[in-house]
Design a protein that fits this description.
Shape: globular
CATH topology: Beta-lactamase
Strand content: 5-15%
Radius of gyration: 18 Å
CATH architecture: 3-Layer(aba) Sandwich
Order of helices and strands: HEEEHHHHEHHHEHHHEEEH
Number of helices: 12
Distance between the termini: 18 Å
CATH superfamily: DD-peptidase/beta-lactamase superfamily
Number of strands: 8
Helix content: 40-55%
Amino acid sequence: MDYQKILDTIESEMSYRDVRGKVAAYIPELAKVDPKKFGMHVYCGDQQHFCFGDSEENFSVQSIAKVFSLSMAMILMGEDLWDRVDVEPSGDPFNSLTQLEYEQGVPRNPFINAGALVISDILVDQLENPKEELLSFVRKITDDESIDFDKAVAASEKATGYRNIALVNYMKALGNIKCDVEPIVDFYFHLCSLSMSCKSLAKAFMLYANKGVILETGEQVLSATTVKRINALMQTCGFYDEAGEFSFEVGLPGKSGVGGGIVAIHPHPDRYSVAVWSPILNEKGNSELGMKALEKFTSLTGISVF
């Protein structure tokens, strides 16, 4: 498969000028991002890399990082985790309070904000230094010690994150939060501020394409069962209330973030991971150009999970 030729085709045929969305302005720091940024990176099972554009520039990965925190929580809790968070698509906005009321404080899945806040509560409760241990996990699976939080983004989220604070307080009132609110939201805002590139995301997500094994070292970080569960959740819940559209158009498990990044994987044996970044979002909060690029990618390669 000539992945570079396919990526060159995507780069030549697509542009930020072709989309009509806007960058995520509700987080002030994200509103400053250049909407013209566009990059894509493919990492294959034979350790080959293919890319174009702004693929090595760091950006705020936002909700993509929820896959990492979920992975850590599953290592700690195993199947007991699902007593506190469900595994169903939400069908509602990712920051919905109404849904929590209907379902007595148990979030629909770990990728909506409420679900990721429950995961954050678990990590704050069980880890001595949750922020440092999150960084250690991501640095290990990427072999990149430079990965860090974007402190300006974290501060920007904290200054405007009233709805997330409300979600934690509401779940605490309903008995699904153990820790104090402040350290939970502090961890959550730092989680979402994680700064990575398409290249480092593609390397990180090879873990989920490769049955929980770090491709370069052969170390088993996650069990094959854990990876199966996470990939299923990415397939059904990874794109807010547009997961069905992504499955229909692209046909891969993946995760998006309001920083404009999307990462998707094709599992073993024809394994690859692919990340794309374009900050302009559609009305559902997903990268508009990124969605189009990944649809083109799986159409041209003919490789998806379906």
